[in-house]
Amino acid sequence: MVRSLIDIYRHEGKLPDCRMSLCQGFTQGGSNADNLLADSYLKGLRDGIDWETGYEAVISDAEEQSEIWTVQGRGGLDSWKTLGYIPTDDFDPHGVGLFTRSISRTIEYSYNDFCIAEMALEMNKTDDAEKYLERSGNWVNMFDPDSRSLLNLTGSSDPAALVDSGFQGFLQPRYANGTFGYQDPSICTFLYNFTSCYLNANGHETYEGGAWLYTFYVPHNQAGLIPMLGGPRSSLVDYSISMIPRVSSTLEMSSPISSSSYSTLQAGQDCPRKRRTSIYRVVSMTPLAASLETMTQEPWGALLLLP
């Protein structure tokens, strides 16, 4: 599979993100083939793999704007490099794609860059490792410490039934001028309009899950996230609320949910970020885009035969 991904880059100019059989599917968030290549390299896969081209491929995702980032690569790279996040009102003159999912794209790009940093470090490309490790911290630029969430835990249509969650601080939309917008953290959960966060032009700023879920999606820096959520005790309570069935979407609906579960492994510990262990524990847990799931579940349909 790793050799096939690199061959696709060699012949088509970009790594795939949602390839199904011989067709390109739609990119849901980040350039998540980067994660798979980095994980494979760090786990020592070497036999017959052209890793210099593999590294060139992930750098292409991080640096070179895809003309059609609806199906491959990333969009909004000018904003990513200059502002440190994908603005909700982003304008991209270099490519074509849906201007939605600014929250989930920002944090997925952050994790993509962390994976590239780990790969670069292992390949002794120290300048690149430092560069992408710094970019991997861009997730924090979407965190609004003042945002709050009202929860409808009863299913009642009466607005008076809304209950303040008691927590504040969620990932929120942010505009190019630096100001924050607001997306109810419970939207895209079973509490509120959970079918509204797909790949449609009027979609929201998270994909297939709400900010209650995505706020925990910092698998590479839980030690940085936990203090922002009020410390170990508060973050565990916050997380437990997010797992209430009516707050959380299902596993099938919410791609990052398995990696957000990793939060609880570190929330009760006072430990520094462990970059070397986190990529091994989390990259494999993080569901990649549909293409990579397809490669696992339907390998024959996902084969690409090139001359």
From TrEMBL:
One of its GO terms (cellular component) is nucleus. GO terms for molecular function: peptide-N4-(N-acetyl-beta-glucosaminyl)asparagine amidase activity. InterPro entries: 6-hairpin_glycosidase_sf, Glyco_hydro_92, PNGase. Residues 1-233 form the Glycosyl hydrolase family domain. Coiled coil: none annotated. It comes from the Eukaryota. One of its GO terms (biological process) is carbohydrate metabolic process. It holds the Pfam family Glyco_hydro_92. This is Glycosyl hydrolase family 92 domain-containing protein. It comes from Bionectria ochroleuca. The lineage of its organism: Eukaryota, Fungi, Dikarya, Ascomycota, Pezizomycotina.
